[in-house]
What does this fold into?
Amino acid sequence: MPCRPPARSGVKLLPHSHLQAVEKLPSGEKIALMKVGDTVERLGPFDEIVIAVGREPQTKSLRLDLAGVKAGAPVAPAVPWVHRRL
It folds into this structure.
């Protein structure tokens, strides 16, 4: 089950999206043009834009079970609504 930030956090997750462009406004704020599915969404304005990328971990060959690590076990989150897994 994917994690979701609280609505009041102001964070919007757009999984499986692609950044098309960033426009800088005269105020210094930024607009992100994100391709989500077949549409391009214009998001902002923002002071800053953070992009995170990731992939599925390839840990089977590490045999972490021999070290007592349980694959899929939660890792302590840095932010309350972030839920990471090995």
Summary: The chain has one domain: 10-85. Residues 10-85 form one domain. The two ends are 14 Å apart (CA to CA).
